Records
---
Amino acid sequence: MIVGVGIDVVDVERFLATLDRAPGLKERLFTPAERELPPSSLAARFAAKEAIAKALGAPGGMSWQDATVHRVVGGAPVVDLSGTVLAAAEARGVSSWHLSISHDAGIASAVAVAEGR
């Protein structure tokens, strides 16, 4: 059963300009492993986290550090949840995620589908 669907689109240049203007933002938005990714991948990870939040109904109080998006060679990306994001997912009965991310022509996008039991 589908519990929620979220989508987000990010202008990569605008996103990177925002990161440059706010030096601590990168540390707030991304886990240490994610921070090492190329700029377009960072924008795509941000879009994925936004899509996940939207699929959960955009509850307040979630920490971006509590969601890590991993690339899987030859497969769909995988999200690891912990803390506040995991609690929000569990409260809504989410048992699995389907995630698609892309970045091309200066745009990063993501779609997240939360599936319940």
---
Amino acid sequence: MKNYILEVCVDSVESAKAAVRGGADRLELCANLVIGGTTPGVSQFKQIRKACDVPINVLIRPRYGDFLYTDHEFQMISEDALMFRELGADGIVVGFLKPDGDLDMERLKVLREKAGTGSMTLHRAFDVCRDPYRSLAEAIEAGADTILTSGQQNTCMEGKKLLGELIGQASGRIDIMAGSGVNVDAIACLMGEIGARSFHMSGKIIVDSGMTYRKENVNMGIPGIGEYDIFRTEEEQIRRAKKLMEEKACSRKSV
């Protein structure tokens, strides 16, 4: 088993293929990465599953915003998790909170069953929970394999202290995967200073649209985000990150 994991979050076939060419160990597939990610489409998953030969975990998140879901939303999440498992997903990425900020253990355990023999990642709902230490223990109890977290800060570097504490508390019982703001510099720091071994990054750049005719002053989405800006994973960013992780993993073995 590798002593590191580089997971790349993608929301297009183009980004998925670039991530795999760059050396991604695993993909997290979503839609709408620009708003933090939502549940991807079925045809999107099928195309990426066909094009990429690495494990694919699927984000199941029906909407932007908080992680307190209605019964209807939870039903959607449950059905989507089962559907993607049947389509060949290797794991699911989910998260549920109660109004008081604690993990919703009942719903997490239901999704653990839906995942079957696949993996389950507790996503960054963890980063807005009330008590990260208690929630880590509860995530283990619920059967999660991984916690994706920035250490309850906007970026993993800002959350470095808590990330280190979580890795220590986890003690190998669950994988603590650093996310948000992950790049080569962050990986070098976190591997060296707190012993992080799992990272989640998008490696995204903005690609200009191929449209030559452009209607100005008409916004179709979030104000401030250009209608002709396309976010894509850059292969070279993934390659540099993977190379660094391999070098540091080798240096540990030789010590």
